[in-house]
């Protein structure tokens, strides 16, 4: 069973979002998603300063099985990307909620976070997929 | 061992033949190399042995059953090759006058006509040099059409269902469109509600593969065509799975505006290894002015090239001359060999073989991805249960199949089914081979249960063991360098 930390928000498309104290959010893909995708071989992160709307594809994770788009969970501007993934894409597999984060973003309206799934709701979705 | 590693300084392929060093005097000094090129220095016999041994390592349709789903790895009749290599064809030159090229032109014209007939389209251009180029040409024509209608700026999106062929989103993107993906229902049809939501004045078209990569026929195709046309979009048919419906159902009758055909799949031209390929495109009335040139015309008993002079709105040339003309000849000969009735039998027997294999595998205890649906020319087994129970994945089973003398089915595609094997037996396999394949699959399932490590370590009998595909993808390096350069 994959890990689903309680303190994060989730999307139906398997991104996780963490609210930071400086008003930004950190985004990555879930443990469930990295499990399904398998060993990562390449991660394409967005450019800092770019604006994305909710649901826009803004990054790509490529595993030995497939290349998958990562969708922006909340509208905003990219403030940082995890550059270490260029050399060590496997961090997405090893530590999806930690060192495997993809990018940070300044949301246009942080209140929109409340519309995302909580850990329980995402857990149900992931479990349904595992059946 | 690489042939470079067998190299010894000064060794040549001349063996014992005494010869003077050739001298060429008329090359200007500035063009002469200062250092010899890094080529292997080996004898002729060493070269023959090296490449013969390499060829013996091939795992191919000529040696093994090859049920690689979505690829249609069927037998290419040898006769097509022999006839296409008649000296009169081989020595034909594209710049020779039409009057001296009537035979070649007649074959190409007839192939256009045959493909028009079997797909139900109004006109066909043979010139795209592979499936990918055919797809590009198809979407480029959609774009040219919207431009001519003055709607190009508004129509920015191409809809692609997630069960479409994997190249479709890439093609739409290459033509400057935004890709809008829509989901598939649990029964394998396009999600009509999602399609309705995705459609609008921004829709340039939809790219569909029918039968889809789930190995089922899209039952709502008529309705989908109506819905897309209603908002002014066009329908693109990916011919990847044409084998299943050949001579039985025509994409033109389903409402498609443009189609590409993979001649290497359905019409038996060389497959894999980079081609050469051929991806003809067919269109209905609306897109005829935009077809790529050259094509072949026929008036007053004579064949002639149709060029951009005749078709000013054409999207243009896709190659210097007529695509891979020699490959088109092979497809023409194949089409003539099987004939109209034969084409129906291709669809019937590729579908029959797939359904037989599907039912036998189900009886052997395997789970089908779409148990309520009849297969077309291919079907999907999901090993999700086995992966959970025994920790043996679809990839492990695929590798173990090699030890039993079978090429693996397509693994992990389509992406929407977990731990999947996409299996396409084609019409050219016998019942005996299909039964042997089922027996091997059943044996592997037993092994997975009792000795999972055995399956996880496969293959054992191949020239190489399990390759590290993660390392291969992360540290891709295909260049050979002389040892002095790597030091």
The protein's oligomeric status is heterodimer
Q: Describe the strand arrangement of the main beta sheet of chain A, using strand numbers.
A: 1-2-3-9-8-5
Report the CATH C-level class of chain A. Mainly Beta
Q: Mind summarizing the main beta sheet of chain B?
A: 7 strands, mixed
The greatest inter-chain interface is formed by: A-B, 11 and 7 residues
Number of strands of chain A: 9
Count of individual domains of chain B: 2
State the order of secondary-structure elements of chain A, H for helix, E for strand: EEEHEEEEEHEH
Q: How many β-strand stretches of chain B?
A: 13
> What is the SS-derived class of chain B?
alpha/beta
Strand content of chain B: 5-15%
The rounded distance between the terminal residues' Cα atoms of chain B is: 19 Å
Please give the CATH architecture of chain A: Beta Barrel
Pairing-aware structural class of the strands and helices of chain A? alpha+beta
Number of discrete helical segments of chain B: 17
CATH topology-level name of chain A: OB fold (Dihydrolipoamide Acetyltransferase, E2P)
Number of domains of chain A: 1
Describe this protein's structure.
Chain A is of the alpha+beta class and 131 residues long. Chain A has one domain: RNA polymerase II/Efflux pump adaptor protein, barrel-sandwich hybrid domain (OB fold (Dihydrolipoamide Acetyltransferase, E2P)). Chain A has three helices and nine strands. Chain A has a six-stranded antiparallel β-sheet with strand order 1-2-3-9-8-5. In chain A, strand 6 (57-63) and strand 7 form a beta hairpin. The mean pLDDT of chain A is 94. With 487 residues, chain B is an alpha/beta fold. Chain B folds into two domains: 79-338, Type I PLP-dependent aspartate aminotransferase-like (Major domain) (Aspartate Aminotransferase, domain 2); 346-473, Aspartate Aminotransferase, domain 1 (Alpha-Beta Complex). Chain B is 38% helix and 11% strand. Chain B has 17 helices and 13 strands. Chain B has helices at residues 44-56, 78-84, 87-90, 102-119, 131-148, 168-174, 192-198, 221-230, 251-254, 263-266, 325-363, 384-390, 394-403, 431-450, 452-456, 469-474, 483-486; strands at 123-125, 157-161, 178-182, 203-209, 234-238, 258-260, 281-283, 295-299, 302-306, 367-368, 379-382, 410-411, 420-423. Chain B has a seven-stranded mixed β-sheet, sandwiched between helices. In chain B, strand 4, helix 8 and strand 5 (234-238) form a beta-alpha-beta unit. In chain B, helix 2 (78-84) runs antiparallel to helix 11 (325-363) and helix 4 (102-119) packs parallel to helix 11. Chain B is globular, with a radius of gyration of 25 Å. Chain B starts with 43 loop residues before the first helix and ends with a helix. The relative contact order of chain B is 0.13. The interface between A and B is small, with 11 and 7 residues.
